[in-house]
Amino acid sequence: MVDILNQNKTISDIIFQLRKEKNLTYAELEELTGVSSATLHKIESGVTKHPELKTVKTLAHALPTHYEEIIRAYIEEEGGIETLFEILQDITSEKNVTLIPIVATRLLQSSQKKTEESLQRLVGFTETLDDGTLRALLYTVIIKYSRERGLPSFVGKGIFKKYLINRSNLSLLEETFREGEEALHYTDFLSQEEKCLYYYRMALHAYALKKYAKCIELGKWGHAVDVTHSKLKEQVALAICNSFWHQSNYKALEEHIQLYEKLNYQIIIDRLKMFHAMILARTNRYVESLPLLRECLDEVQGDQRLPRLNLLLEVLLQINDDVSIEKLISSDEEQLFPYENATPYQYSEIGKYYKFKGAFFIEQGQANQAIETYLQSRQILRKNRRLSRYRGTFS
Predict the structure, then answer these.
(1) Distance in angstroms (rounded) separating the CA atoms of residues 110 and 106
(2) Which DSSP helix (H) or strand (E) runs through 274?
(3) Cα Rg for the chain, rounded, in angstroms?
(4) What number is the average pLDDT over the span 256-278?
(5) CA-to-CA separations, 326 to 13, 278, 322, in angstroms, rounded
(6) Has residue 375 got a pLDDT over 80?
(7) Apex CA 233: angle with CA 229 and CA 238, to 5°?
(8) Residues 155 and 186: beta-carbon distance below 8 Å
(9) Residue ranges of the alpha helices (H) in 110-230?
(10) 317, 289 in Cβ contact below 8 A?
(11) pTM summary value
(12) What angle do CA 109, 6, 111 make, to 5 degrees?
């Protein structure tokens, strides 16, 4: 008896096995599949060694439990690139993730076209798909096949395209960043537009992972090759400035703020007052920073107030302005905090607020309130650590 799991099986084997296992006559199999008895007999007996594609598709859809086996068996003998593309279109429309890489690889192996032509056509087909998972699956095939044949241009473009798809998976930020870094070896094979987009997306990705040195490096590489002016370019400039802030490199931060202001980056211009207040606060010029911080706090609404409120509280604690602190923490600010569906950054800021509030209660000798507040801070920060494993804050 023919083993139906045998990878070298033919459609003849499958029909024979099916008839024997189900004890079916050709007439019964015709009724089941819609393929004529005469055609089934010719296929099983070997008279028809390579059935027409429409016959194979009819059989495959009529026998769903044997669908993948029938398609696998057919493409083993099929070398026609147009036929293979038709099969690929069918299985992608059905989102058959098992067969897609098998058919795509068989298509690339076809001797009817040069390797580069087949790869280019497969890339073009991949770009027409709406499903990101399927596109990533096909780019994996393209990358592997191109690497094995020493075609770096297709390797580079494949890695780049796959990275743009997978970076949206917020549960795999570290993994997708490492995969994206591989494209650094292939940037010469990207167009200028692709190169800019790659550097910018990687810079924002690095910032989300708190890889601030990488964010600065990648962002500057993008700026160096980008002759256009875009919102994304400005977003990267903001990430670079914020990275210097997190590194406590206030001199570099001030230099870059001035540079981006001269370049008319509106996203930086809109934050000039806040950046100046931040620098003053962190370089111990507290008295100078206070009026700016108060202005910055009054200029925003909702959860945008939280990081500005925290910086103001930090400065007030440094100068022991208890009256101002008590006024802030007794206001209704906490009602505006995004306790639900917050980003990791927002949870971090909420936790920081309760930490400052607890420090104030300690200074005031209010031990019970301080303990309660610190517990709130720990609870929020713990929630943030859990969330950070699954979510990112990058665009």
Answers:
(1) 6
(2) helix 272-282
(3) 31
(4) 96
(5) 83, 22, 6
(6) yes
(7) 130
(8) yes
(9) 115-127, 132-148, 152-166, 173-181, 192-208, 212-225
(10) no
(11) 0.83
(12) 10
